[in-house]
Amino acid sequence: MSQPPESSKSGRSSILLAAARSALDTNPARALADGRASLQLAYEEGSQAGQAEAHLVVALAALRLDDSSTALEAFEQAGQLYVLSGELDHAVDAMLHTGRLLNDRGHVTDAIRTFAQALGFARETGNQGAQARALNSMARQAHAHGEMTRALELLNEALVLHRALGDAPGETNTLTNIGMTLSGLGEYEQALDMLLEAYRLVRQNRPLDAAAQSLLLVNIGFLYEEMDELSRAREALERSLAVSREGHVTRIEVGAAANLGVTLVALGETHEAEHHLSWALQTSRQINYRKFEAVALGGLGSVSLTRGQVQAALSLFDQAIQVALDIDEQGTYLTTLVHKARALLQSGAPNTAREVLLEAHEAAKGARRPKVLRDVHHLLTETYERIGDFRAAYGHFQEYQRLYQTLRSAAAGREGARLTEQIDMERAHHDAQVYRVEVEALQAARASAETLVAERTRDLEISQLEIVNRLALAAEFRDDDTGEHTRRVGLYASRLAFALGLPDEQVNMIRMAARLHDVGKIGISDALLLKPGHFTSEERLQMQAHTLIGAALLADSHSRLLREAEVIALTHHERWDGRGYPHCLAGEQIPLVGRIVALADVFDALTHVRPYKRAWTVEEALHEINAQRGLQFDPRLVDTALLLFAAPDFLKEVTEQVRNDFF
């Protein structure tokens, strides 16, 4: 039987290739089959250009089918054949795909080399679009390594090229990458500007690009998570998950699910978190997307830790750390080290936790990761307290406070509000035909959730009061087994606050929060706390550390009550003249609640029996407080106390209220 002529084979190959390209988005399995058939014919006719094009189509189809192994091999072959046939522009695109897949599979060195080769070919041909894409890929690699300055240099160069070409999708991608790099540096305000600009560009494109939109929403959600705006992070990530599923963009769906799971863990919703994280782990392994395999493993470790399953958590954290090291994903590596240290502390191994945290501290400092550094210093404070090294704990607590204030700046909050408004506008104008069902489902879920929240809020308020009561009793139990001291201080403080004209809500909050002023005594040994006589200099420093311990115990709460208590615990031993502790604040540098509780605490100590003194009369106590006007106490508060506390039967009235009022 005669063979068909070469021209006939070439024609069939071209027809199959065209059919494969047209089926890429609608039927990738058919595209893969046609691409392979076209490839076979191209090899038979010996056409390098035909082989390269067929390999490229096979790779793109395999990528859509989440077959990364087939895609990687085909992209590599396409790149090599395009170079041999002199089609360097096409070679660059194939090489960039190759580099990204190599990176996802953990072959970091090979990925870096491939990106560099692609950039070299792009510059050789003068193709600005290809140069910009190569620069973006290299920047992502630098970001993953923690080389933020280098990443920004590459991205800014790419942005200039995209804008010169009028390439809106490329500009959007680059702005997004700049935003995430700035986020890694803690520059949240600038990061938000970049993401907002990228979002505006995405919304201008028609038809809407599901991949670009869902990827941007993932990044917005991640940024919110970095800013500790967890509710907003959840909203953005849930939206990304819906859009990526609607558009069948599995790789972005995996990222959205993994990040959403991490956010839900932080919100305390471990059951739903486990669902998303388990799916993300399974799917990331199926498509060999190792970056989010690490994220999902770390998230599942946090779920286990929340449930008290410490050994299971440590195993999952170690797996996540190993994957992150394999692919050189520094961000996930650092955050997982912090989670591992928290698990080690929970398991009663502070010395091992310290070693892990010091490793994380050095890496985070070199990578300029301020949020990770904040968490590291917070945990090192607790770690050194448990070890008994209060000087070291104090130093880390000071650094934690500095980073905490920086990261929670008002500017970041304002920009966060702007971003929420922008997302809300997008939702209102979104294509109703595509997302109508999703929006209706969200509205129904939220209506149900609001009813549930209203019910649970009442329970939460009661629970918070009980928690405060138990914490206060625990702190006072060893040197005041009645717990009445903390209640009296709360009442004195609330009456001072009321007399100063503070709102009723704040007055009531101060009454409760003041009860935790000495909660840090939980971390002071019995030998020191109950010691008769004077302290040595070293013992005095250890005793003064109860302010830091108390603040650390109460830190990072979502409760306004406990945040107020944190301020009181930290500042109630500061003095108006700046000679107090722990931070030697002076005058109005001391928060008002700290000044109020300082006076209330001393008044109660003076008017009640202590092992080293008798109970003073109200007159004697007020005389001493007046003597400390402008020294230990705020002069305005002294004037208020002299009028308020000198009222007939004031002390008797407070004592009776304490005994009749549980809270």
TrEMBL record:
Keyword field contains Cell inner membrane: no
Domain HD-GYP: 460-657
CDD domains with a match to the protein in the record: HDc (cd00077)
InterPro entries, per database record: Cyclic_di-GMP/3'3'-cGAMP_PDE, HD/PDEase_dom, HD_GYP_dom, TPR-like_helical_dom_sf, TPR_rpt
Gene3D superfamilies: Hypothetical protein af1432 (1.10.3210.10), Tetratricopeptide repeat domain (1.25.40.10)
Keyword Transmembrane helix: no
Lineage: Bacteria, Thermotogati, Deinococcota, Deinococci, Deinococcales
Source organism: Deinococcus peraridilitoris (strain DSM 19664 / LMG 22246 / CIP 109416 / KR-200)
Positions of TPR repeats: 172-205, 214-247
Protein's recorded name: Response regulator containing a CheY-like receiver domain and an HD-GYP domain protein
Keyword list, A-Z: TPR repeat
